Amino acid sequence: MEILIPLITMGVLGLLFSVGLVIAYKKLRVEENPLISKLEEILPGVNCGACGYSGCRAYAQGIVDGKTEPNLCSVGGNETAQKIADLLGIEVTQTVKKVARVLCQGTIALAKFKGEYRGINSCFSAQIVCGGNKLCEYGCLGFGDCVRACPFDAMYIGDDGLPVVIEENCVACGKCVEACPRKIIEILPVFQKVIVFCRNKDKGSLARKLCERACIGCGICSRACPDGIKLEDNLAIVYNPLNLPQECLPKLEKCPTKAIRVIGDERERISTQQRAG
Amino acid sequence: MLFNLRKRTFEGGIHVEDYKELTDSQPIEVLNPGEKVVIPLHQHFGAPAEPLVKKGDEVKVGQKIGEGKARFSAHVHSSVSGRVKAIDYYNHPSGQFALSVIIENDGEYTPFEEEKEIKDPFSLSPEQIIEKVKEAGIVGMGGAAFPTFIKLNPPPDKPIDTIIINGCECEPFLNADNRLMIEHPEDILRGAVLIKIATGAERIIIGIEDNKSDAIKIMESHAKDFPFTEVIPLKTKYPQGAEKNLIYALLKRQVPAGGLPFDVGVVVQNVATAKAIWEALSKGKPLYERVVTVTGQGIKEPKNLLVRVGTLLKELIDFCGGLKEDTKMIVMGGPMMGVAQWSLDVPVIKATSGIIALTYIPKDHEQPCIRCGRCAEHCPMGLIPNQLMRLTKFGEIEEADKWGILNCVECGCCGFVCPANIPLVHWIRTGKNKVSLLRKQK
Question: So what's the ipTM on this one?
Fold first, then answer.
């Protein structure tokens, strides 16, 4: 008979708790829009944050709440945006595919160095020792903080000491831009073929001493294509990539340091030789 | 030995081979700069000074050429007479480029104002002293180069009772302060009295490490003539000269985390700063020269030199017989906290206490941390360097902040004792930078 006491006690307790649970489920239930889960399934689920939200679910919530546009996911691109639009029954504008570009050509051979760096293998750490071991204050340090930050295996450090972006893998999430202590990586539209591969704002005479590929601010390019290129702080900037007529492109080859370049139609994967040449 | 054990000191720290014998008996020699003098406008903690001269101007010795306008800044004075060749970016001891006034030295050293004798500087009011110290561009000459007028002007709710004159010079190799104490004890003590007047303190303590027995003897014999002044020998240990450790060693007062010596009623000044204050107030001479120890196994004739700010490093080294062939590294400052130089075309600044040519490169090839805890045992600030390193390494920046990473003084004890050769200070410095970035974002 004694066995009945624990059995009954546990049984009653179990009953009580289950009733409690049922009440809690009915009363405290939060109604969630089922669209959010559906959207989350469409989104790639890498939680990279390129859309400006902390993750894919937060972005889905944002879309459903009408706080944001459905075409901000750079990982999924236009395809995902279209799917979202179909689901919600709205129109989306096509976005331009973008890619990360490293704006430095100061390879081991072409840039000048202060000395041997012995320390932690990280750009951020190298930057706080004498401002990095490269003479140029704006150049790539080449210790690969961007490579480590990339969640898509789209970057590696080339043999010449500069990071290379694999365009097929790059989804323009912007993690590398954040990681770079020198802020020389920029997310640019894929169609932009004219790029200033330098961020040096020093005067021409100094810039020349620091690196063979530095922009010296001579203004040849901005005079050739004034509608698309301008000079700012001794640095050429392509401010309007759509406004560069075909006929002015050959003039850009006159750049004395080859800091500004027109990258080819076929995928530009700058090899060491090309950079060195 | 027993006597030694009873001497005052702080907790933690390390015993380093001091190599002081290379220059401790070398009297201070005067070295005048060559034709080109480069005076950086940023020689102190805080914002850079703004140039007051332009290309082509004639300047004279002691003329103000840069004005520190920000709250934390200091004036910069010309150390030579001549013509301003350019105002341009030039190599700076920090390893970066800094805006500097480049002057063509005419070698005549015409003073800007005739040295005027102030009859009795001791009769000046605290405000007058602070104003003159500010005008003379005096900064802490121990290495951090913190503007002195700020230190002499504590907030009114924090009364100062003790002035500590820092004669520890705990960094190995250096003898600049040691020689100053031997050769100019009177000036240092008079400067200390002026600091006492400016801050309204009651007493002066001069802390000297016991490896400088000559300096202790001389300072003690002169200190007798000054009331409420005491020389206290300290057990030799690095980093005794760090403000917070020195206060603890002498007074057993602990400066709170993130606090300043003001908080415990103390002002600490280096001996060279005290001398500079005396010279500024008695002769009206701004800070444009300092004593630099040029030493190390790589220097042929190690010396203590009185050099003008802006003299180039190579001139100092040439004056000391040049470099030996096996020199591997040149460090400006002490070997523990100094900055390795990548060029000899670098000017001496107000904070340059020494130039050291090393014939070996400090240890290399890092191994994994074995958690032996030696770094924590030796940390003078009571931090746990290996934990801070790990938190930084794995991006736990907020956590590192909680573990007190910002209290690190970057003395280098942890890295020195680490059996695995981990660059702990570099990691912690990385972490400190990341913490301040994070705080800025918030």
Answer: 0.86
